[in-house]
Design brief:
By secondary structure, the chain is mainly α. It is built from nine helices and no strands.
Length: 234
């Protein structure tokens, strides 16, 4: 774990700017046409979680750099960081394993900044931050289920909005959609949606417990682990 606050601050500011630019591009700011429907996608919402967390981490790192100097722990809120990491890595895995292979005629979109920024760069930057700066051994066995509240709330939100008739059509889409992702479309798949949702939640929990297992294996010595609060730094 790196304990250089100058390096951590520079990395986090750079990561924040990359992630923020990805969201800004996706919601159409640079095109002069705000595409609010983009904010209803899990991808953008998980990226926003990363942006908010990075903003907090930048503030905490800068504060400790000023008060305590450049050498010291850059780890803050490790359990929250782990939760945000799993949420955005879920975006990464689902997109590249399920959605990208079915891109078809839209395959050219995969290599664009508007896609790579939110489906590749942001998840990998969050993963890098976690690996480089976050102390191990803080996660609890119940945490994966706590983290799963985020996709559960999103599923409820998307279902309600879809059944209410929200139009999820983006400029790149040929037809309007009632649901953000094909595997959530009740009108096309019927009760098969339940199967896809169960698989998605199993995948999410699998990723979360993989992180918990790795975190447990890399647990530091007990005397180091007891130096900080489980939601705080060190």
């Amino acid at each position: 774990m790196i304990k250089n606050r100058i390096f951590a601050l520079c990395f986090r500011v750079a990561a924040f700017l990359v992630c923020l630019s990805g969201v800004v591009v996706n919601i159409g700011v640079f095109k002069g046409a705000f595409e609010g429907v983009s904010l209803l996608y899990y991808t953008i919402q998980s990226n926003l979680l990363v942006i908010i967390l990075l903003g907090v981490l930048i503030f905490k790192t800068a504060k400790d750099l000023q008060k305590e100097g450049k050498e010291g722990s850059c780890s803050y809120y490790p359990r929250i960081s782990a939760g945000v990491l799993i949420c955005v890595m879920f975006t990464f895995v689902v997109f590249w394993a399920i959605l990208a292979p079915n891109a078809g005629e839209r395959a050219s979109y995969l290599g664009t900044f508007i896609n790579l920024s939110v489906h590749l760069m942001c998840p990998l930057l969050m993963l890098t931050d976690y690996i480089l700066f976050t102390v191990r051994g803080k996660l609890k066995k119940r945490d994966p289920f706590i983290f799963s509240i985020v996709p559960l709330v999103y599923f409820i939100q998307a279902t309600i909005l879809g059944l209410a008739g929200v139009n999820y059509q983006l400029p790149m889409d040929e037809e309007a959609k009632r649901f953000p992702y094909f595997f959530m479309d009740y009108f096309v798949l019927g009760w098969l949606v339940a199967l896809f949702v169960v698989i998605a939640f199993a995948l999410f929990l699998g990723l979360a417990y993989l992180l918990w297992f790795i975190d447990k294996r890399l647990r530091p010595k007990e005397e180091d682990l007891n130096k900080g609060d489980v939601y705080g730094k060190k």
